[in-house]
Amino acid sequence: MCALVGCDQKAAKQQWEYRVIHFDRDESNFMESALQTMGDEGWEYAGPLANNGMNAQFVAFKRPK
């Protein structure tokens, strides 16, 4: 038996939208600015996607749709 209202309903699957940012190690001012902007817009760090070795990396962000 379920004492919660509506607990017999299936939970809706969370939908996400994603954004990829290219970070270059030599552009620390850009990285800080980009991270602040992404956070202000509700984006959350999702993880690294790829890097080109020494200088740059592609990073994924996500937020609920």
Description:
The longest helix has 13 residues. The two termini are 33 Å apart. 20% of the residues lie in helices and 40% in strands. With 65 residues, it is of the alpha+beta class. The protein contains one helix and three strands. The model has no long low-confidence stretch (mean pLDDT 84). It has one domain. The protein is elongated and about 55 Å long. The chain has a three-stranded antiparallel β-sheet with strand order 1-3-2, covered by helices on one side.
Using DSSP, what is the number of strands? 3
Q: Main β-sheet: number of strands, strand sense, barrel status? A: 3 strands, antiparallel
Largest sheet, spatial ordering of strands: 1-3-2
Task: Specify the helix fraction band.
Answer: 10-25%
The average pLDDT score comes to: 84
Query: Helix-strand pattern, N to C?
Result: EHEE
Q: Helical element count? A: 1
Residue windows where pLDDT falls under 50 for at least 5 positions: none
Structural class: alpha+beta
Determine Rg (CA atoms, Å): 18 Å
